[in-house]
Write a structure and sequence with these properties.
Number of helices: 5
Oligomer: single chain
Structural class: alpha+beta
CATH class: Alpha Beta
Length: 143
Amino acid sequence: MKFRIEIVTEPARLAAVRDQWQDLWARAGSHVFQTHDWISGWVSGVRDRKEIRLQIALAWDGDSLVGIMPCATYRRSGLRILRWAAELFSDYCDCVIDPAYGRSVVLTSLWDGMRAQRRLRPDQPATSPAGRTVPPVPRFAVR
Protein backbone atom coordinates (compact mmCIF):
# COMPACT_ATOMS: atom_id res chain seq x y z
CA MET A 1 0.00 0.00 0.00
CA LYS A 2 1.30 3.46 -0.92
CA PHE A 3 0.73 6.37 1.45
CA ARG A 4 1.32 10.07 0.91
CA ILE A 5 3.88 11.13 3.51
CA GLU A 6 3.90 14.71 4.76
CA ILE A 7 6.58 16.13 7.04
CA VAL A 8 5.22 18.84 9.32
CA THR A 9 7.86 21.43 10.20
CA GLU A 10 5.76 24.47 11.11
CA PRO A 11 3.46 25.03 14.12
CA ALA A 12 0.75 26.45 11.83
CA ARG A 13 0.52 23.19 9.87
CA LEU A 14 0.57 21.22 13.12
CA ALA A 15 -2.44 23.25 14.29
CA ALA A 16 -4.24 22.64 10.98
CA VAL A 17 -4.20 18.84 11.36
CA ARG A 18 -5.50 18.81 14.94
CA ASP A 19 -8.91 17.24 14.19
CA GLN A 20 -7.49 14.46 11.99
CA TRP A 21 -4.75 13.78 14.58
CA GLN A 22 -7.24 13.50 17.44
CA ASP A 23 -9.53 11.23 15.37
CA LEU A 24 -6.62 8.89 14.62
CA TRP A 25 -5.45 9.01 18.25
CA ALA A 26 -8.92 7.90 19.41
CA ARG A 27 -9.11 5.07 16.83
CA ALA A 28 -5.63 3.84 17.76
CA GLY A 29 -6.22 3.91 21.51
CA SER A 30 -2.87 5.61 22.07
CA HIS A 31 -1.48 7.17 25.24
CA VAL A 32 -2.09 10.76 26.33
CA PHE A 33 1.53 11.54 25.36
CA GLN A 34 0.63 11.08 21.68
CA THR A 35 -2.30 13.52 21.67
CA HIS A 36 -2.19 16.58 19.51
CA ASP A 37 -2.69 18.74 22.59
CA TRP A 38 0.35 17.20 24.33
CA ILE A 39 2.67 17.69 21.35
CA SER A 40 1.38 21.16 20.41
CA GLY A 41 1.58 22.23 24.08
CA TRP A 42 5.20 21.17 24.10
CA VAL A 43 5.85 23.09 20.86
CA SER A 44 4.35 26.29 22.26
CA GLY A 45 6.15 25.97 25.60
CA VAL A 46 9.63 24.83 24.60
CA ARG A 47 12.25 27.36 25.70
CA ASP A 48 15.10 26.68 23.26
CA ARG A 49 12.87 26.86 20.16
CA LYS A 50 15.72 28.04 17.91
CA GLU A 51 17.54 24.77 18.62
CA ILE A 52 14.52 22.54 17.90
CA ARG A 53 12.73 21.91 14.60
CA LEU A 54 9.56 19.91 14.16
CA GLN A 55 9.88 16.78 12.02
CA ILE A 56 6.46 15.16 12.36
CA ALA A 57 5.78 12.54 9.69
CA LEU A 58 2.13 12.03 8.73
CA ALA A 59 0.91 9.13 6.58
CA TRP A 60 -2.22 9.85 4.54
CA ASP A 61 -4.43 7.41 2.68
CA GLY A 62 -6.36 9.87 0.54
CA ASP A 63 -7.88 12.35 3.01
CA SER A 64 -7.57 9.97 5.96
CA LEU A 65 -4.68 10.29 8.41
CA VAL A 66 -3.44 6.76 9.15
CA GLY A 67 -0.07 7.28 10.82
CA ILE A 68 1.88 9.82 12.87
CA MET A 69 5.56 9.78 13.81
CA PRO A 70 5.98 12.82 16.11
CA CYS A 71 9.65 13.77 16.03
CA ALA A 72 11.84 16.85 16.20
CA THR A 73 15.47 17.60 15.48
CA TYR A 74 17.65 19.09 18.19
CA ARG A 75 20.94 20.81 17.57
CA ARG A 76 23.65 19.81 20.04
CA SER A 77 27.38 20.46 19.60
CA GLY A 78 26.82 21.27 15.93
CA LEU A 79 24.99 18.00 15.21
CA ARG A 80 21.34 17.52 14.38
CA ILE A 81 19.73 14.71 16.35
CA LEU A 82 16.34 13.25 15.49
CA ARG A 83 14.35 12.40 18.61
CA TRP A 84 10.76 11.98 19.71
CA ALA A 85 8.94 15.29 20.06
CA ALA A 86 8.41 16.15 23.74
CA GLU A 87 10.35 13.07 24.87
CA LEU A 88 11.84 14.83 27.89
CA PHE A 89 8.30 15.60 29.09
CA SER A 90 6.65 12.29 28.21
CA ASP A 91 6.53 8.97 30.00
CA TYR A 92 5.92 7.13 26.74
CA CYS A 93 6.81 8.01 23.14
CA ASP A 94 5.53 6.14 20.10
CA CYS A 95 3.93 6.45 16.71
CA VAL A 96 0.16 6.57 16.30
CA ILE A 97 -1.02 4.01 13.74
CA ASP A 98 -4.56 3.33 12.53
CA PRO A 99 -5.39 -0.23 13.65
CA ALA A 100 -7.22 -0.87 10.36
CA TYR A 101 -3.84 -0.78 8.56
CA GLY A 102 -0.81 -3.00 8.88
CA ARG A 103 1.36 -1.46 11.58
CA SER A 104 4.66 -2.42 9.96
CA VAL A 105 3.55 -1.09 6.54
CA VAL A 106 2.56 2.32 7.93
CA LEU A 107 5.61 2.52 10.20
CA THR A 108 7.99 1.68 7.35
CA SER A 109 6.33 4.32 5.14
CA LEU A 110 6.65 6.95 7.89
CA TRP A 111 10.33 6.11 8.43
CA ASP A 112 11.09 6.09 4.70
CA GLY A 113 9.39 9.48 4.34
CA MET A 114 11.35 10.87 7.26
CA ARG A 115 14.63 9.57 5.79
CA ALA A 116 13.86 10.94 2.34
CA GLN A 117 13.08 14.38 3.76
CA ARG A 118 16.27 14.46 5.83
CA ARG A 119 18.42 13.38 2.89
CA LEU A 120 17.39 16.33 0.71
CA ARG A 121 17.78 19.13 3.23
CA PRO A 122 17.98 22.65 1.72
CA ASP A 123 21.43 23.21 3.27
CA GLN A 124 22.88 19.99 1.88
CA PRO A 125 22.78 19.42 -1.87
CA ALA A 126 21.78 15.96 -3.07
CA THR A 127 25.07 15.89 -5.01
CA SER A 128 27.16 16.00 -1.83
CA PRO A 129 28.51 12.69 -0.51
CA ALA A 130 26.43 13.02 2.67
CA GLY A 131 23.36 13.88 0.60
CA ARG A 132 23.73 10.66 -1.38
CA THR A 133 24.64 8.45 1.55
CA VAL A 134 21.85 7.31 3.79
CA PRO A 135 22.15 4.24 6.01
CA PRO A 136 19.87 1.30 5.25
CA VAL A 137 16.36 1.47 6.63
CA PRO A 138 15.89 -0.76 9.65
CA ARG A 139 12.90 -3.05 9.23
CA PHE A 140 10.66 -3.14 12.23
CA ALA A 141 9.55 -6.27 13.98
CA VAL A 142 6.00 -5.49 15.02
CA ARG A 143 3.96 -7.80 17.19
